[in-house]
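Protocol step 4 of 6: structure prediction from sequence.
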Amino acid sequence: MRKIDRMNPLTSVAAAAMGIAIGLLVQFYLSGRGYAPFVPPLSLPVTLVFIAAVLLVFGIRLRRNVSKGKRAVNPFHAVRLLATARAGQIVGGLLGGFGGGLLLSLLGRSVPAPVTSWLPMLLVFGGGLTLVVCSVITERLCRVPPGDESSEETDPRTGPEPVDQAAFREP
């Protein structure tokens, strides 16, 4: 069985950097046109935290099933959860960075922005950070514990040993 590596943390950092750039560009565009700053809806950070909680719950349930060994774990379920956790790291970095970029644009103003403007931006940043952290934890929960790997090593060129078909025939 091939060992699956963790996702590179620089991927989340790069997504966050892109989010910051997009947030800054949106705010600079709006201020250049004379519009009010973009304020994200409060449903965005709530949704990010909800997705993070769901990922964490599914990861804990999967780890419990693997460690108990009572129930068979569907490998497709585990791979889907791993892929979702990795996507959560990217999306959390991107949207958290977007909230951070929106917030950064307000720091350079001579007149401080009202709380109703910067609080949703701060919450989006926190929600994205929460999603990244919970996704990293879920990714680690999806790892196969040592000793669960197959003890039989097969040669990739020849494949597994042939099965004796006579053992499966009815008498």
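Step 5 (inspection) to follow. Residues 45 and 124 are 5 Å apart (CA to CA).
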